[in-house]
Known about the structure:
Elements: H1 8-32, H2 36-63, H3 91-113, H4 118-147, H5 156-159
Amino acid sequence: MNVAKAPLKKLLGMAVRSEIDSNRIYTELAKRVKNPLLQEKFSILAFEEKKHKEVLENLFDVLYQGEKMEIPEKTEEALLPSIHFSPSSTLAQILYQAMQSEKAAQNFYASLAKRVKAQKKKILEYLSKVEKSHYMMLRSEYVLALQFEDYAEKDIDKVVT
C-alpha cells in the first residue's frame, strides 16, 4: 500500500489500529518485566499510544464530520509492523521489534502529514516526532538489554552488582 496514494480515511483507520495494538503490547510488556524502571517506561509508552489513538480519532472527526472510522482487524505489516513475541522471546528481541515499529510509525505519520493542510499537518508531524522519541527511548533500552542479560528481571541495583 502506498501512503501517498491510498485513501486517507483508510490510512487513519490503520493508524488507529496500530496505536490500539501498540498500547496493548506495551501494557502487556509492563506487566511482563520485573525491572520497575522498565515497567514505568513501558507504561508511559502505553499511555502515549492511547493518547495518539484519541488524537487520530479527533483528526478523523474534523476531516470527515459525521462519518464513522473503519478500523481494520490488523494493520498492513509492511506499512505499520506489529510487535510479536512469545514467552521465550528475549527482551532484546522484543525491543528490537518495538524499535522497528516506532520507526515505521514515525515515517508513516511524516508521510501522512504531506497529505493534509496547515493545523492538521502539525498534528501528524507532532505524532511523527513523538514516535521518533519512542524509538530513541527503546534504542537505549535495547542497548542495556544487550549488555545486561537479566535487565528485564531485576531492579536496576541488582542488575549491575
